[in-house]
């Protein structure tokens, strides 16, 4: 069954390396038959958080209205995050914090990366806490990509031959949670 998984990317750096990973994730999900729009804060140019989307009471900036519509149609979210000083990139935190109810009762999946060997797992641990608080519980598996600058060839394909197999397992887990929560949302939510 086709599902909708917005892919939220967190870096706005000039020479960001994770954008290749974020594009690959979105393309791979589309290849599985899903709708997977890439939400890039560099393209969206969100304002720094002053008010949440809901606090605009119908007078939100167009970029927030567009994102709200995408998020409300979502079955789950994929968060692609680098690790900045052992934490979450500020652009990603800003992107996430504009919304709340739009995330409720939908799973999230964390794809983390770093230039070093840990694959951004320290940021992923912080994301687990943040995503749970936002109402989109993360699936158990984290898809970590170490040495992201070397993870893809010039053609955009993963350099690691096991990448596709690892991602397939990760995606199947996300699909399972998304289908289960979608069925439960159709019955109603706890509050």
From TrEMBL:
SUPFAM superfamilies membership: Flavoproteins
GO-annotated molecular function: FMN binding; oxidoreductase activity
InterPro entries cross-referenced by the UniProt entry: Flavoprotein-like_sf (IPR029039), FMN_Rdtase-like_dom (IPR005025), NAD(P)H-dep_reductase (IPR050712)
GO CC, any one term: cytosol
Pfam families: FMN_red
Occurrences of domain NADPH-dependent FMN reductase-like (ranges): 7-147
PANTHER family in UniProt: CHROMATE REDUCTASE, NAD(P)H-DEPENDENT FMN REDUCTASE LOT6
Protein name: NAD(P)H-dependent oxidoreductase
